[in-house]
Amino acid sequence: MHHLHFNHLAVLVAALIQFFLGALWYSLFFAKPWMALTGHTKGEKPKGIVVAMLSSLIGSLILSFMLAHVVIWSGAATVGRGVFVGFICWLGFITVPLFSETIYEKRPYGLLAINSGYWLAVLIISGGLLAVWR
User: Fold this and answer.
1) For position 2, what pLDDT does the model report?
2) Tens digit of pLDDT for each residue in 8-53?
């Protein structure tokens, strides 16, 4: 197998973008509807927040690392093509499973929209970044 060469700093930056966008997405942009749909209350002190945030950062690193591979394998070398790779990954690997979970677990479709929208944003941003920053 051909050894892939990618920019480790780009992977780290993509992961940090995902992490900080997630913080903004769920605490600022969509805080009220997300809390209402998940049963959280304002001012609630979440248990295990440090572990949750650390796991989110590790997950973002893994996702960025994997997306860098997909971007390289696809031959995407422009922002537009990287965005397209991110979109395809979002559609097939994120939205389909989230949609199925929503149906089986009878979750609100608004929650699907918030969660899926976050993944769309981070995958297209990360895909575009990883395509051009090698």
Assistant:
1) 56
2) 999 999 999 999 999 999 999 999 999 999 988 887 777 888 999 9
In contact, 7 and 134? CB cutoff 8 Å: yes
Q: What range does the domain containing 58 cover?
A: 8-132
CA distance 91 to 72: 19
Pick from 35, 18, 28, 20: which is nearest to 90 by CA? 18
* Position 3 in a domain: no
Burial category of 21 from C-beta neighbours within 10 Å (exposed 0-12, middle 13-18, buried 19 and up): middle
* Average of per-residue pLDDT across 94-119: 97
- From the centroid of its chain, how far is CA 91? 12
